[in-house]
Amino acid sequence: MAKNKNLLIFLLFSVLGFILYMNTLKVGFVFDSVSLKYDPQIRDIFSALKDVFLQYSSNRRLAYFTFAINYLIGRENPIGYHIFNIIIHILTAFTVYKFLEIFTKKEKASFFAALIFLVNPIQTQALNLIVQRMVLLSGLFYFLTLYLYLKNRETDKKRYYILAIISFLAGIRCKEIVITLPLVLTFIDYKNIKKIIPFYFIAFLPILFKIMVALNGNNQIGKVFNMKQANADLTRGKYFISEFKVIVYYIALILLPLKLRIDYDFKVDNSFFNIDVLFPFFILLVLIFLIIYLYKKKFLYSFSIFLFFMGIFVTSTIIPIEDLSFEHRVYISSVGVILFITLFIDEIIKSKIIKNSIFIIILLIYSGLTINRNFEWKNESKLWKTNIKYTPNKVRPRYNLVEVYLKEKKYNLALEEIDEILKIDNYYEAYKDRAKIYLETGDYNKALKSINIAISRYNKDIENYEIKIKIFEKLRKLDKIEETALKSLEIEKSAKMYNYLAEANYIRKNYNKAIKFANLGLEVKNNYRGNYLLGNISMKFSKYDKAINYFEQCVKIGRMDSKLYKRLKWLYQITGKKDKLKLGTLKK
Known about the structure:
Blueprint: H1 2-21, H2 45-54, H3 61-74, H4 78-104, H5 107-119, H6 124-128, H7 133-155, H8 158-172, H9 181-189, H10 193-216, H11 221-224, H12 236-255, H13 275-297, H14 299-312, H15 333-348, H16 352-378, H17 380-390, H18 395-407, H19 411-424, H20 428-441, H21 444-457, H22 462-475, H23 478-491, H24 495-507, H25 511-524, H26 528-540, H27 544-557, H28 562-574, H29 579-582
């Protein structure tokens, strides 16, 4: 009977989860997920699997292994990534239900709390930012570990204890936020501290791994632990006091998830003695007092508050992170707030009809808000416009909107947005984006003027020089191309810049210089353009074997176009290496 009940509940969670998130399957790689598309760690599944067990420089290898599975199945198609995320969220919600059921002994309250967790729109960021699967997996293993531990306590079967340890280890390999779990276990079961000690040891593993990496690489321990500030102005003290208002806002956002956005605009506080710090600090003191006061009188309420704090402990205390807040950071903590409210409603409202009606109304409202928010995620320009509406003075959402307009070739809208950015912040990135637009639209003089301003404001960005070279290519100014590439090389050795120099000399028929610069580029990085150019020069001087070697390097790098195909085919024929064609060495 219990198995049938669990199956029905899981099916309900699954159907509801997919209904809410079905319209997000084609949401692309947005914001911090963009880099995942180009991450070499996900392109070799066997290497990713090996790293789960053997690579300790990062504690997120299990999460990356799941990305590698997605890449193997669907490459860069986002649908598979989103389906995976939805499944994890459904599993987490069901695990929350099982944990709360065994922990609270209140079946109905546990059921509704897990359902509210499932449909709450605050979770949309964790699901739709593909890379935040790390948070989803951490949440899954967090609550699975708690459930298995309590199952062991209830049944005294060792297998549940062993599985709890394995689950916690898996969570550690997804994201470090799970390291607070031993504290939660101690809060629940301090009388059995001996059983909890192994969990403290596992929680110490991420620190141990970083020490090993530091010693192996002769690095300073402080650097490996990110002891430097997130930026020059954000000290540990400032970050800590600035988080007071963020934490209070998190609670409000979980309960009333309105005005959701990717990028919030909380200001860094410089002093403890101002109302923005003192008022939320007082609220947090009250909550901490309630944890202690309710511990014996109303233990479940005390636990709910404690769980909320433990879920955000890593991201909201003394370890400075560049961004003060993100919605996905409350994925675990939200269970604490939801449990508190659910228990309160369950206890205060005596009528079953009224109680169930309240829960159903909450579920319907949250579900509607989630579907509406997911429609915003589906349209990237709308996503950033919504963000700008709520944070008009923050430039990063505006920059992201500019990037969307550039992808959609809406250049006039992009220029208008750049004008708005420059009213807020005279940063070089705006001039760089403006130069890109003018380059794309053929207004090369304006493009050159904009990129020169960008370089004058920040001359360390190599992309600025690349844009400038592209402008000079359009203007056919070889001297300026060489001059710009040489300036860039003073800042950073780059295969691209050596290739620009090689190509400029190739056009001038200065083949020796072209060969020299192309080879210097290959020393920095084996690349297609350098090999292709050297192959062409070798052909020009009838050095066919050399040309074949260079062109075959191009094939190994992974690119084959019609020109390269024709060149290699001709070279194989003229050198009597037709067998390479038959053996499939050459693929069109």
